[in-house]
Amino acid sequence: MNPSVSDQLAAARRILLDLVRPHVDGEYPAALLTGVADVLAVLEQGWQRIPAFLTDDTARLRDLLARIADADVLDLPDGLRTRIAAYVAAPVPTAAALAELDAHAESGRALLAEAAPAVVAVGEHPVHDALRGYFDVRIAEFPLRPTPRA
Questions:
Q1: Segments forming the whole domain that contains residue 25
Q2: For residue 59, how far is the Cα from the chain centroid?
Q3: 62 and 129: one domain?
Q4: Are residues 22 and 79 in the same domain?
Q5: Together in a domain, 77 and 132
Q6: In this structure, are 75 and 124 located in the same domain?
Q7: Are residues 68 and 19 part of one domain?
Q8: Residue 21 within a domain
Q9: pTM exceeds 0.70
Q10: 129 partner at 20 to 30 Å CA-CA among 68, 73, 91, 115?
C-alpha cells in the first residue's frame, strides 16, 4: 500500500526541511527543527525492526527478572518478587499487538528499575553480571540509530 510508513515519514521530514525550515528565524529554532527531521529519518530507516526488537528484548527481560526474583541474596523491596513472578508468568503479547507488547515491556522495565538498586548493591554476583549483559545486548541491538552529522 502506498504511501508506506517509511514514505510518510520521509515526506514529513522533507516538508519540515524544504518548506518549513526556510521560514524559521533564529539559529536555535532552526537547529531544533533539524533535530526533529533527524529523528524522523531515524524512524524512517528503523521502524520496521521495532516489533522484532521488542519481542526479543522482552524475552531477555523476562529471563533477567526471573533470575532476579530467584536470587535470595538480593534485598528487594517488599512484594517485588511476587510482582516479578506475576509478570514472568503472564502471557506475552505478540508483535502483531504492538501497543500491548510495548505496554508489557514497559511494565517489565519498571520492575527492573525497581529491582536494579538491589542488584547493583550486591556487587559481584551472577545476577549483577546478567543485568550488565542485558543492557549490553539491549544497547547493541536497539534498532534506531542516528546517523552522525558531518
A1: 5-48
A2: 13
A3: yes
A4: no
A5: yes
A6: yes
A7: no
A8: yes
A9: yes
A10: 91
Nearest by Cα to 21 from 10, 9, 32:
32
The residue type of 106 is: E
Are 62 and 32 part of one and the same domain?
no
Residue-level pLDDT, tens digit, the chain, 150 residues: 678 888 999 999 999 999 999 999 999 999 999 999 999 999 888 889 999 999 999 999 999 999 999 999 999 999 999 999 999 999 999 988 999 999 999 999 999 999 999 999 998 999 999 999 999 999 999 988 877 766
Which H, E and C letters describe the chain, residue by residue?
A: CCCCHHHHHHHHHHHHHHHHHHHCCCHHHHHHHHHHHHHHHHHHHHHHHHHHHHHHHHHHHHHHHHHHHHCCCCCCCCCHHHHHHHHHHCCCCCCCCHHHHHHHHHHHHHHHHHHHHHHHHHCCCHHHHHHHHHHHHHHHHCCCCCCCCC
Question: Do 133 and 65 lie in a common domain?
Answer: yes
Cis peptide before 3 (omega within 30 of 0): yes
